[in-house]
Design a protein that fits this description.
InterPro entries: ARM-type_fold, IF2/IF5, Transl_init_fac_IF2/IF5_dom, Transl_init_fac_IF2/IF5_N, Transl_init_fac_IF2/IF5_Zn-bd, W2_domain. Belongs to the eIF-2-beta/eIF-5 family. The protein is α+β, with helices and mostly antiparallel strands and about 400 residues long. The chain is built from 16 helices and nine strands. The protein is globular.
Length: about 400
């Protein structure tokens, strides 16, 4: 069975994990009774995690033709003769409207129906909730035929329990190994002591002992000399506690700028010139400050003042972020700290999009799953646990962990 990536935008990505079967159609009947049978509609709908009745109905609405899906036989029929390419194009439109997240483009979403009878898509990857355009004809059909609620909580709880059990077992094994190695080390040290005492009684042992005594005496003599010089020198007066240094004033009398603010300002001016990613990486080597300070400054220079659209800007400028990461010797914790630092100063609207931004960087292979999870676990339980960033990062981390457990099961 031939497979293709879900979503036209991911067509050329060889490593994209979400796939569906290529559409197969068959023209049946003749004259007024001619119909198009989508032979593998059930398999396509299963890959999209949507009922096959939704896709079949969507084709009928868009083509202005009667359509029918038989739940018992799994047969999907649309009146009229329609070629495969045309139906495949309509399916892409269905995926954009009813499958892919409007934030990160991930197809792992579920359809929600609100109390006010509105349709939403909730993304399992970034937690973004997309509002579906209710002017589309299919929305009425979905409201009348709501999707089945997935009962995945029990399965997820079992996975977590199994993971915890394995973790505890590994910890117990590790503790047993350490206990065993400490006992072996103690027995070895006692053997060495007994051997050492025997050597001291031997002629070579006595020579070694005399050598050690001589070295100890010379060390004691050196200490005595140092003490005598210290006694001769007058006692030092205790210096009063240092006062904070006053801020340096420039020639015009204004206070000098903070070095980090100066670095951010310089980077903003440099980025206005539109350098390439390689040119930015070279420029960063001439910047003063630690790698963490420089990468923090890059983030501030790139995204300072952004309100909405933070995630999209991250996706647009991921080449610059990659250059900063390469400058920091591919240290992902430095990049994650820069994101955390930026979100601490950014507007609430920008912080809400941090999960989508992380998803873009994860898809671009700039961040790895282990680094993100470790950063989240340390941050959400550390000194900065009250920050609002962790609330918005949590759905993405849970998605990463559930995806990992699913791949292990497969």
């Amino acid at each position: 069975m031939a497979l293709q990536n879900i979503g036209a935008g991911n067509r050329d990505d060889a490593f994209y994990r979400y796939k569906m079967p290529r559409m197969v159609t068959k023209i049946e009947g003749r004259g007024n009774g001619i119909k198009t049978n989508i032979v593998n509609m059930v398999d396509i709908a299963k890959a999209l995690a949507r009922p096959a009745a939704y896709t079949t109905k969507y084709f009928g609405c868009e083509l202005g033709a009667q359509s029918k899906f038989d739940e018992k036989t799994g047969v999907s029929l649309v009146n009229g003769a329609h070629d495969t390419a045309k139906l495949a194009g309509l399916l892409e439109n269905f995926i954009k409207k009813y499958v892919q997240c409007y934030g990160c483009g991930n197809p792992e979403t579920e359809i929600l129906i609100t109390k006010t009878q509105m349709l939403q898509l909730k993304c399992a990857a970034c937690g973004f909730v997309s509002d579906v355009d209710m002017r589309d004809k299919l929305t009425t059909f979905i409201l009348k035929n709501p999707p089945e609620v997935k009962k995945s909580k029990d399965k997820k709880a079992l996975r977590r329990a199994e993971k915890e059990r394995l973790k505890n077992g590994e910890a117990a094994d590790k503790a047993a190994k350490q206990k065993k190695s400490s006992k072996e080390g103690a027995s070895k040290s006692t053997k060495k002591k007994t051997q050492g005492s025997d050597e001291d009684h031997s002629p070579t042992g006595s020579q070694a002992a005399q050598k050690r005594i001589t070295e100890q005496l010379s060390a004691v003599t050196a200490d005595m000399v140092m003490l005598s010089t210290e006694e001769k020198s007058p006692p030092r007066k205790k210096s009063p506690p240092r006062k904070p240094e006053p801020e340096v004033k420039a020639q015009n009398g204004s206070l000098s700028a903070d070095p980090q603010e100066t670095l951010i300002k310089d980077l903003k001016e440099y980025l206005k010139q539109g350098p390439t990613a390689n040119q930015l990486k070279t420029h960063l080597t001439s910047c003063s400050g630690t790698p963490q300070e420089v990468v923090d400054a890059v983030f501030e220079a790139l995204f300072d003042g952004l309100q909405k659209g933070f995630a999209k800007e991250v996706n647009k400028k991921k080449n610059y972020i990659g250059a900063a990461l390469a400058y920091a010797e591919s240290s992902q914790p430095i990049l994650l700290h820069a994101i955390e630092s930026f979100c601490g100063k950014a507007s609430p609207d920008a912080v809400k999009e941090v999960a989508v931004a992380l998803k873009f960087l994860y898809d671009a292979d700039l961040l790895e799953e282990e680094a993100i999870v470790e950063w989240y676990e340390k941050g959400s339980t550390g000194n900065n646990k009250s920050s609002s960033i962790w609330k918005f990062v949590k759905p993405f981390v849970e998605w990463l962990q559930s995806a990992e457990s699913e791949s292990e099961e497969e």
